[in-house]
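#help-structures

NK: newbie question. if I give both the sequence and a SMILES, will the prediction place the ligand too? trying with zinc ion
OV: yes, paste both and it writes out the complex. here, I ran yours:
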Amino acid sequence: MEQRLKKIMEKYQIIDSHLHLGVLGYMNILGDPDGSMLKLMEKYGLDYAVFSHHAALASTTFGWEKTIEALGKDSKLYAYIVFNPNHGDFGMKLLEENIGKERFSGVKIHPSWHRCYPADARYKRFWEYAHQNKLVVLSHSWNPDVANPDQKYSDPFLLADIAKKYRDITLILAHGGGRGAYLYKVLDILKENKNIYVDFAGDILLPGLLEDYVDAIGSKRILFGTDMPWSDIRYHLLWIEGSEIDEKDKRNIFGLNAKRLFKLT
Ligand SMILES: [Zn+2]
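OV: that's the protein plus ligand as structure tokens.
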């Protein structure tokens, strides 16, 4: 397996558009989480990564400090500014002052974590601002019919309604829109809305899924996202490399799409 991984690293530009830095209590990440992540990035040949910091998902001011601190650790790191609608004034200030500067490349939202529907009034000025400024927004998305009731806030169909209204936003649906039937239902959203992208961050690596997506929507709106440290990058590398899709599609997915979208040089 090591040989195969090495070949993938040599052959492709690889950009992880969905990973996390920092500690998260219940994940029991020991030692130096950012240092460990940078080592993994080096080991598996990531050219760049766009991260959201665990601390920034949980807390706005402390999370912002940790995001800045992490950005200083390596020039391969680019950041999502996390927008928490419950602290909207602070979030809007961060966006207005920082987005597009330095290595702040996009915005991460997590409607489930922040328990706020995408169409809630607390998100309104954010969507308007994102539309006016043509921002890239990565949203957690999941099917609502699962044990965790908070997933209802991140239903990809609710997010699609927003992307239909605010056409200049590029919206990335994380985790292929959820699990089970949703992985395929989401294809209808992607076919209808050219401003919606998708990643398969996490452990959503069903056999044949990537082939079906490329057949249905092409490869240009599929991003390589691992969700590290929640999942193991090796699965993701081997899953894409082993898929029966064209070489050009693999190049797009591994890195070229993210390079274009986040204007990485
Ligand atoms: Zn994630």
